[in-house]
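Hi support team,

I'm filing this because I wasn't sure whether my run with fructose -6-phosphate finished correctly. The job status page said complete, but I'd like someone to confirm that the output block is well-formed before I use it downstream. Pasting the exact inputs I used:
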Amino acid sequence: MQVLVTKDYAAMSRAAADIFKEHLKNHPQTVLGLATGSTPLGMYEWLIKYHQDGLDFSQVTTFNLDEYIGLAGDHPASYRYFMEEHLFGHVNVPKERIFIPNGMAEDPEAECRAYDELIRKLGGIDLQVLGIGVNGHIGFNEPGTPFEATTHVAELTASTREANARFFASIDEVPTHAISMGIKSIMHARRIVLLANGEHKAEAVAAAVKGPVTPDLPASVLQLHPDVTFVVDEAAGRLL
Ligand code: F6R
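And here is everything the job wrote out:
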């Protein structure tokens, strides 16, 4: 595992975007794994700038980590909407190669199985970006999720619903469940870049990097992956 501590959020975002840019230049036909949340926003802004300067996404396939159950893609708090707003609306990934779990699927379990199958069929994820929850979650793999979990229906913890309430009118509107790529699905990615910024992530980051590898802190599983880079700002890296 490599750990890169940057001065601040802006530097974290730039460093992460540069990893993606280099990867894309060397592997234009790549499969990317993408995340939502506040953390990767700065990285996506850089990728949009790089695209305006010529970085090509026309042969890229993307898989997002997760989506809320019960929100359609046109709901402003859905992850599909978020991705359109913050990345896909501004770069040239072909629409038919953008994959995000369908939160409105009639049979969410079947949707989960189909999602993993599609990732496999399209060659697996080459480069995955992750954020981390204050409780150490990755995707919506909350503490206690088995490392063997593939894409599944996840029940959100109270702390995650509270953390995400800022995107909704009130906490009551935050969905209780989501479809999330599982830890096993995430660990299949060939390369993983985890981003974290801010004091509130410091404990989770330290536990993920140097604590015991345990389902109680899902991100600690990354210690077992052969090619992981943590890019964290000084505040999030404070306890390293
Ligand atoms: C988002 C996701 C989540 C977030 C995590 C951190 O697709 O899967 O695991 O990465 O909750 O969220 P932020 O970045 O908002 O602090």
